Automatic annotation (TrEMBL):
GO biological process, one term: DNA repair
Name this protein carries in UniProt: Phosphoglycolate phosphatase
Keywords assigned by UniProt, alphabetized: Hydrolase
Highest classification ranks of the organism: Bacteria, Pseudomonadati, Pseudomonadota, Alphaproteobacteria, Sphingomonadales
Species annotation: Sphingobium indicum (strain DSM 16413 / CCM 7287 / MTCC 6362 / UT26 / NBRC 101211 / UT26S)
Entry EC no(s): 3.1.3.18
PANTHER family: HYDROLASE-RELATED, PHOSPHOGLYCOLATE PHOSPHATASE
Length: 224
């Protein structure tokens, strides 16, 4: 049987990290004596690589400054971690879903705008790191929606686009999946609305983990 691969986004899909991301963003901007963006401005850019997210939040700044501000954000997030102030809880039912998919023979991966270190710490904290066979991050790839992360995940797992499904909460995830030729599933509990996900071309949008389980298994049937 062909290997089946389910690739998950992290922030907004596996974990609800918005409070920590917003807190680090505010610290980064205020540390540079800039007016910090509000939550409504920050949430839509979660999922992009940091320089691209900064470019959307501060479009009039020079390109080099976006890189500088990205480093300030990383330092702010690291400080939050040292203060034990990072909150990245798993969404309801996600841990059980990951275990069940693994037990059912699915290969699992992550494609995220997080750093290698940030993703590793997040997955280890929740005890689910061992379930994933491929981890792709912004440290080694262009920003979503470029398909690089998903193409690398398929290469590492030995799967094809026809046997791969991408699950995410933003239009960037959906665009990446469609560019890579895979199935694209959205989750309605993250940072883009279900309407945005459907508009981007998602093959389905789940509103809870049980519905997502059904969509993932249905995506395999469509590829047979």
């Amino acid at each position: 049987m062909t290997n089946r691969l389910a690739v998950f986004d992290c922030d907004g899909t596996l974990v609800d990290s918005q409070h920590s991301i917003c807190a680090a963003m505010v610290r980064a901007f205020e540390g540079e004596k800039l007016t910090a963006p509000d939550r409504a401005a920050i949430l839509p850019v979660i999922g992009l690589s940091l320089p691209l997210a900064m470019a959307r939040l501060l479009p009039d700044a020079e390109v080099g400054y976006h890189d500088h501000l990205s480093e300030s954000y990383k330092l702010a997030f690291q400080q939050l971690r040292r203060e034990n102030a990072v909150s990245e809880p798993l969404y309801p039912g996600i841990a059980a879903l990951i275990r069940e998919l693994d037990a059912d023979g699915w290969l699992l991966g992550v494609a995220t705008g997080k750093s290698d270190r940030g993703l590793r710490l997040c997955l280890a904290h929740h005890g689910i790191h061992a379930h994933f066979v491929t981890l792709q991050t912004a440290d080694r790839h262009p920003s979503k929606p470029h398909p690089s992360m998903l193409l690398a995940a398929m290469a590492e797992a030995g799967t094809t686009p026809e046997s791969t499904v991408m699950i995410g909460d933003t239009s960037f995830d959906i665009d990446m999946a469609l560019s890579a030729g895979t199935r694209a599933l959205g989750v309605g509990w993250g940072y883009h609305t279900p309407q945005e996900l459907i508009g981007a071309g998602a093959h389905g949008v789940a509103m809870d983990s049980e519905e997502l389980r059904g969509h993932i298994h249905a995506s395999l049937m469509r590829s047979l």
